[in-house]
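Researcher: Please translate sequence to structure tokens.
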Amino acid sequence: MIGNQLGANLAVIYAGLVLFGLAYNALVGWLEARKYQEGYVSDLVAVGVALTIVPFVSLSGMYPAWQIVAMIAGGFIASGTPMMLGARIRHAKARKHDQTALLAE
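Model: Translation complete:
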């Protein structure tokens, strides 16, 4: 029963973190397009890390530390994957734009 409840809780947490990652990626993309993130990337990372860890606070003390660490690692995969893919897509678009501009000169 406890294992099933943990699995259900983790499914909700991970799904929420994927949604957070998608929304945060959209926000970061919007900030980058307007150059608002320049000089504040570390702040964006710190906020993302903090918001990824928060859902696991309620589970601390219920499970051994190594399990909490494994759960948090899964959380970073869930929230970080949309960010990593979004960064690569934005970089590829910017690079293509720069290359097109160079060829036009």
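Researcher: Any highlights?
Model: The longest helix spans residues 65-104.
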